Amino acid sequence: MDIDAYLARLGVARPAAPDLATLRHLQERHLAAVPFENLSSHLGEPVVLEEDALFAKIVGRRRGGFCYELNGLFAALLRSLGYEASLHAAQVFRADGTLGPPLDHAAIVVSSDSGEWLVDVGFGRFSRHPLQLSAVDAQRDPDGEFLILDAPHGDVDVLLDGKPQYRLERRPRPLADFIPMAWWQTTSPESHFTQSLTCSRPTAQGRVTLSGAKLIETVDGVRNEVLLPSPEAIRLAYRVYFGMTMTRLPVPPGESPLTAGASQPDTALT
Known about the structure:
eight-stranded antiparallel beta sheet, five-stranded antiparallel beta sheet
């Protein structure tokens, strides 16, 4: 782990101590600097859940990723900085209220003298600050009100504005436990990651998302959508909003390639 390179990716100086204030700042900066994206599924890239491969992608190539990648590497950084951080599996609630499969999501739990804290930089819209797992009352966050409730088998349910988000296991897991589900998520026609294309991150005023040629910006609760007219405009949006220079573009499901030279590897802005 090249701590300084990772912190530079986040725009953060090396912290003096692994305390809660620093954890809060690291989570905020990670969410702002590293997008949640599933481009690899649509670029024909394998997702390799090994620390060196994740570091090369997220730090070296300045890309983003999805839960297993983002939380997997961030947990490694936190441990390198002196935090007691572990990965935990979660089942995501579907729109109809039923639970998805086991290991559907990976999140981080940080244990400290002040208790256990849920840290998640890989769930799209979620808390920008750590959530105390033992809290009884709702916890206010820039992205909404979060509530932690007891669930069967010692698990906990995490709710955002009254809506269940996922059920978190309390036992830690190694990153390797998520490899089979990560493969399914990135290859199965039934996975929503193969059915949709997204690159998204929070901003100071809301959120910005690029889905194929559709650029969506939410500013102070007002949503605005723009259909980008050309591959060049899409590349520019990736560079301006997410810091990524794409020599080829991911192909949205059901569409033909947007660019020539689709066999060229993508590079990232350094």
